[in-house]
Amino acid sequence: MSAQAQHEPASVPACWCCGRPYPETELTRLGQHPEIGVCLGCAVFLKRRATAHRDTGNSSPASRARGLIGTVREAVISRGWHEHGPLAALLRRIDRYLP
Predict the structure, then answer these.
(1) Each residue of 5-26: pLDDT tens digit?
(2) Are 45 and 16 in contact (CB under 8 A)?
């Protein structure tokens, strides 16, 4: 009796937020939950959501500015300006540096 090694296909890790497959080197693992990995784009999105949550009820100039940026960002995305047209590359580039 010999035991044969079972060959399972190697699973490609995926982002727990968007579900897209990524190499392990492109995922950020959570400290107490290493089974959870998120890609860079989703990590930035989650940071923005956490900051917006923290700003709720806060009326500092910085929180108001972040709120205004978020409103403009939502308008741009709802119109699809970030995907097509001559402004798309510029808008995506600017977005990298906004809170």
Answers:
(1) 555 556 789 999 999 999 999 9
(2) no
The Cα–Cα gap between 19 and 55 comes to 28
Is residue 5 assigned to a domain?
no
Residue 84: phi, psi to the nearest 5?
Answer: -135, 160
Q: Is residue 82 part of a domain?
A: yes
- Kindly give the residue spans of alpha helices, DSSP state H, lying in the chain: 40-55, 61-79, 88-95
pTM exceeds 0.70 for this model: no
- Judge whether 65 and 41 are in contact, CB under 8 Å: no
Tokens found for residue 5? 């090694």
Q: Which tokens is 91 given?
A: 């808008």
